[in-house]
Amino acid sequence: MNRIWNSIVGKLWVTILLLVSFVLFIVTVLLLEFLGNFHSETVEEALHNEANMIARIFNDHGNEDNLSIVDEVLGPETNAVIAEEPGEISYYLHDGLNGEEIREKIVSENEFQKVFESDETVTKEMLLPSLSEADRMESYIVMASPLQTSDELHGTVFIYQSLEVMDRTAERTTNIVFLSAFIALLLTTFFAFFLSTRITSPLRNMREGAFELAKGNFDTKVKVSSGDEIGQLAIAFNQMGRQLKHHLEVINQEKEQLSSILTSMADAVITFNQDKTILLSNPPAEKLLQQWLFKDGTTDANALPSEMLHMLDHVLTFQEEIEEELEIEGAYYAINFSPLYSGESVRGAVAVLHNMTEQHRLEKLREDFIANVSHELRTPIAMLQGYSEALLDDVGASEEERNEMTKIIYEESQRMGRLVTDLLNLARLESGHMRLYKELVQFNNAIERMTLKFSQAAKEKGIELSFTTELDDWAAAELDEDRIEQVMTNLIDNALRHTPQGGQVHVHVENMGDHAKVSINDTGAGITEKDLEFVFERFYKADKARTLGKGGTGLGLAIASNIIKAHSGEIRAESKFGEGTSFIFTLPLKAM
């Protein structure tokens, strides 16, 4: 029932019913009033005519034989009383009960007394006993008309009729009106539901279509069944669905494009809300946030370094863009904060973080490289210059001294040559321009040969040099044997130089499936943990005092690292300070 009252059908039906009921009510009231007045006037006119007729008959004939004529003159349900003198009833015609009481009340009515003395006709409604029931009173219309008007005192004819006739007429009229109203209500209900159904059926279809659009089904279409306003509404609804689908596709494409751009960016992008919570972040930003959370040991996903929070406060408060380069957790970032607007107000901010750590590291390496090259070249150049000037000035007193100076000049020139050669080789390796001449070699034999060539040097220093292998003898690899020998030379030579007398240098080969693992282990001084990650950098020396006088250009490990990587292998260093160092590299084996 509630569904009907809340629908357009119910509301339209109730509205039409109320309108028709109101109209019928007004029409009924006016019609009953009109019929009552009309019936009263008709009855009064009829009674007046009948009274005049009876008066003429009685004046002309004046005997009781005329009473039969008077009876014919009277209308149905009309009675008459004739009084020739006041208070005396001469003749009467009465059909029904309570005739005597009615006659007495009519004749004795004070308003009718003036009719006996004038030619005036008096009409009055009176409450008299009923004609059909003994103990009931009902309304009558009574008309008194004079007789023999030429005399000063004359008689009067009284004609009276019960108003039940009018009541019955009004009741029949009312019944007819109510029957008509009932039929009108039925017809109104039928046509209201018919009309409203024709209106609401397409509206219900559009409502269902709107629900489908709300669910995301933008292919929904409403059937256009007419050319009126509802049909035009259905056409507009279908156009709206098509436009929504088009705009949503455009938005999705832009969203996917923006998501792809953010995902593919190397820089970290973080979007903040007004309350400083993170709304959006791309994968580099998520990785960076996870690193900060791990280092801080917190579980708050919105936790940020204090430097960034200060910048975010500044942007949200002053609504201006800010750009700075900061060091956060040992890394360098170029950070750009920009406010996000919603109309005139700031709804948040976006931060773009560019990791500058590698650039800082490369800049430091460049500066260190220039400083190291200058340092490495300064000493031999100074010695060359000094001893050359001594020879030119003939400072040497004996041939032996001059030969010693010449030998020093030669050794320093050789050292400068090795440094330049190593720099060129390293540059070629890092640029990828050095060509490798790979050949299929037996891995164990090659590594053992490269190791044993240092046996004599180890014996002279009192160091035990050994070689072991767990690799099968038939295992082979495609290598540039000269380059791998250069790697082994650098690693074993470093081990021998930094291992004290009585120490050990052990070369061990292991099988790691499709790779061979080579370890050069020594029992030397070792490398500190903070220096371990930089050992493969150019010119890097963990302890300048410790390495002083032990030769080397500081480029050997950098060259070794590049050679191993050029062979699709890996190299690393493990060390405990004061216990020894292990250099480990892997090389791919050739499947036989």
TrEMBL record:
Provide the E.C. number(s) assigned to this enzyme: 2.7.13.3
According to its UniProt entry, the protein's GO biological process terms are: osmosensory signaling via phosphorelay pathway
Which cellular compartments is it found in? Cell membrane
Q: Where is the Histidine kinase domain?
A: 372-591
Reaction catalysed by this chain?
ATP + protein L-histidine = ADP + protein N-phospho-L-histidine
Molecular function (GO) terms listed?
A: ATP binding; phosphorelay response regulator activity; phosphorelay sensor kinase activity; protein kinase activator activity
- Keywords on this record? ATP-binding, Cell membrane, Kinase, Membrane, Nucleotide-binding, Phosphoprotein, Transferase, Transmembrane, Transmembrane helix, Two-component regulatory system
Say which domain of life the source belongs to. Answer: Bacteria
- UniProt cross-references to Gene3D superfamilies, sorted A to Z: 1.10.287.130, 6.10.340.10, Histidine kinase-like ATPase, C-terminal domain, PAS domain
Q: What is its main location?
A: membrane
Q: Which InterPro entries match?
A: BphY/WalK/GraS-like, HAMP_dom, HATPase_C_sf, HATPase_dom, His_kinase_dom, HisK_dim/P_dom, HisK_dim/P_sf, HisK_sensor
Q: Does the keyword Heme apply?
A: no
GO CC annotation, single: plasma membrane
Q: Which SUPFAM superfamilies does the UniProt record give?
A: ATPase domain of HSP90 chaperone/DNA topoisomerase II/histidine kinase, HAMP domain-like, Homodimeric domain of signal transducing histidine kinase
| Domain called HAMP: residue spans | 197-249
Q: How does it sit in the membrane?
A: Multi-pass membrane protein
Cite the PROSITE patterns for this sequence.
HAMP (PS50885), HIS_KIN (PS50109)
What is the name listed in the Swiss-Prot or TrEMBL entry for this protein?
Answer: histidine kinase
Organism the protein comes from: Planococcus citreus
